[in-house]
Amino acid sequence: MLELKNDRQASPADFGYSGWTELPADADGPRFICAYHHGGGIEPGYTPGESAHVLGTIFYESDFGVTE
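-> structure tokens emitted (68 positions)
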């Protein structure tokens, strides 16, 4: 699991996973983009159930590497 952006202060309806796809590999290897909605629970003016941003995060296959 790769947590992309923690938003535990937002209403559960205002954040979550939307989808992902694999992009063409670059010099750093295979890469992916994930789109998701993020409520911005700690932002000024946040209104539960009415606020959300669509965000995207690019990550690489190596982000899932084995740790010792």
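The mean pLDDT is 83.
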